[in-house]
Amino acid sequence: QLLDSGGGLVQPGGSLRLSCAASGFAFSSYAMTWVRQAPGKGLEWVSTISGRGSDTYYAESVKGRFTISRDNSKTTLYLQMTSLRVEDTAVYYCVKAKVVGTPRASAAYWGQGTLVIVSS
Amino acid sequence: DIQMTQSPSFLSASVGDRVTITCRASQGIGDYLAWYQQKPGKVPKLLIYGASSLQSGVPSRFSGSGSGTDFSLAITSLQPEDVATYYCQNYNSAPFTFGPGTKVDIK
């Protein structure tokens, strides 16, 4: 199970931290990903982190502003978002990789999503 | 970076029709291609991984094919519950981009 949380209304230039509490699987064995979807738009891959947290990957649109991290002892995934822009408004989904041990994996299981609204 | 394109962007077909959606990668990605289905107001769901492997629980009327740069998703007999937007995704190398989506409707 993946429980996304932390979304809300924030002003442009502000910060927000999303969390994803995972349960029911060997969390540290799987890469985890954040995917977002702006209202009425398609899916956008945001960031992926390896199982141990040693490797991270970012979309160009968020590089330098967002930081993905994980706490395997708490089986929780995070996305720290700073310098938020209006165009970051979206539902953010926490996603579990289908296979263990690699970030090169399809997205097998999706959280319910948490809505981030960036507006003044 | 690898760009993903899909065609058509919208299709309308009758119940029982065979429909095909194509996805093209700007560079070769082997078989590191997934297909997802997103019904209106719902969370996306994995249909196909490895370009042609059916995810557990997905009806057998769905199938995927292709490798390298050209891929396709087929629905052999379209059902009303298949109304959704379908996305392909490259997971060969970051950025793990999604295609723009294909919206499927019933005529």
Summed up:
The complex is a heterodimer of chains A (120) and B (107). Chain A is globular, with a radius of gyration of 13 Å. By secondary structure, chain A is an all-beta fold.
Report on the structure:
- With 120 residues, chain A is mostly beta strands.
- Chain A is 0% helix and 49% strand.
- Chain A is built from no helices and eleven strands.
- In chain A, strands 2, 4, 5, 6, 9, 10 and 11 form a seven-stranded mixed β-sheet that branches.
- In chain A, a hairpin with a 4-residue loop joins strand 7 (66-71) and strand 8.
- Chain A starts with a strand and ends with a strand.
- The model of chain A has no long low-confidence stretch (mean pLDDT 96).
- Chain B has no helices and ten strands.
- Chain B has strands spanning 4-7, 10-13, 19-25, 33-38, 45-49, 53-54, 62-67, 70-75, 84-90, 102-106.
- Chain B is mostly beta strands and 107 residues long.
- The chains are: A mainly beta (120), B mainly beta (107).
- The A-B interface holds A 33, 35, 42-45, 48, 57-60, 93, 98, 103-108, 110-113 and B 1, 32, 34, 36, 38, 43-46, 49-50, 55, 85, 87, 89, 91-101.
Q: How much strand content do the residues of chain B show?
A: over 45%
Count helical runs of chain B: 0
Helical residues, percent of chain A: under 10%
- Number of separate helices of chain A: 0
Low-confidence sequence ranges of chain B = none
